[in-house]
Amino acid sequence: MAVKSRCQGISVSFTEPTLLFEYSLDVFPLALNASLYTNYVSNGYMTIEALKMLRDAGLQSIKIDVKGGSDAVRRFCGADVFIVWRNAEAAKNMGMHVEIVNLVIPGVNDDESILKEVVENHIKHLGVDTPIHFTAYYPAYKFKAQPTPVEKLEEAYELAKRFGIKYPYIGNIPGHKYENTYCPNCGHLLIKRVGIFKVDIKITADGKCSNCGGAIPIMLWKGRI
Ligand SMILES: [Zn+2]
Fold first, then answer.
1. What distance in angstroms lies between residue 174's CA and the mean position of ligand 1's atoms?
2. Are 162 and 199 in contact (CB under 8 A)?
3. End-to-end CA distance of the chain
4. How far is the CA of 209 from the centre of ligand 1 (A)?
5. Which of 45, 78, 91, 93 sits at a 20 to 30 Å CA gap from 52?
6. Both 164 and 215 in a single domain?
7. How far is the CA of 5 from the centre of ligand 1 (A)?
């Protein structure tokens, strides 16, 4: 179906993908055979053994939502955020492409000290080249807190930048300038986006900024579009 629909890859998402663990182990080898990429959108709470099995089956990239600092994650998810960071680091060491998301929810995990903890853990476990996305929350189902103010997301973005993260982003605010990728050396606009769409790319074919020539470690998809 993915090939017929001219998709670029297979992403297991919209519920925790480890719930589709066995299915993933079956599907990923078929996907790679058909030159499709493979991705997980995960809470990052699997065992290292499960992560290795996914890697061996062909999982190439993973986006992990850390959901705040250790206190917020313990209080609202009943979980240990250390396991999430451990897995993100392990996935990177296994050769997967890793990106981190932090859904910023007012009154839950939007305190500056929590954002700082997220940024510090990101640098400690993944380094400054790994992208981090601060995404806006909207009220849904039984949770009634107000949507995340854009200023709060901008504050998180700027904090990440100040701490040295080269590729921070804001998410769920379509058309915001921080959805774009900028050169960490000269600030030149490298990838212009609107929502999930890339509308302009200014990275050279050999992976450099078209303005200053600095190396940009971003893989551009060369397959079917
Ligand atoms: Zn540049």
1. 24
2. no
3. 16
4. 5
5. 78
6. no
7. 36
Burial category of 10 from C-beta neighbours within 10 Å (exposed 0-12, middle 13-18, buried 19 and up): buried
H helix or E strand, kind and range, residue 64: strand 61-65
Write out the residue range of the structural domain in which residue 39 sits: 9-173
Spell out the per-residue pLDDT of the chain, length 225, in tens. Answer: 999 999 999 999 988 999 999 999 999 999 999 999 999 999 999 999 999 999 999 999 999 999 999 999 999 999 999 999 999 999 999 999 999 999 999 999 999 999 999 999 999 999 999 999 999 999 999 989 999 999 999 999 999 999 999 999 999 999 999 999 999 999 999 999 887 777 889 999 889 999 999 999 987 766 443
Same domain, 211 and 166: no
What tokens appear for 104 in the block?
């910023």
Taking the centre of ligand 1 as the mean of its atom positions, its distance from the CA of residue 215, in whole angstroms, is 8
Does residue 51 share a domain with residue 150? yes
**How far does residue 216's CA lie from ligand 1's centre (Å)?**
9
In degrees, rounded to 5, the angle at the alpha carbon of residue 29 between the alpha carbons of residues 206 and 196 is 50
Ligand 1: centre distance to CA 182 (Å): 8
- Could you tell me the distance, in angstroms and rounded to a whole number, from the CA of residue 99 to the centre of ligand 1? 22
188 touches 199 (CB < 8 A):
no
User: Does any domain span residue 3?
Assistant: no
97 phi and psi, to 5 degrees? -80, 125
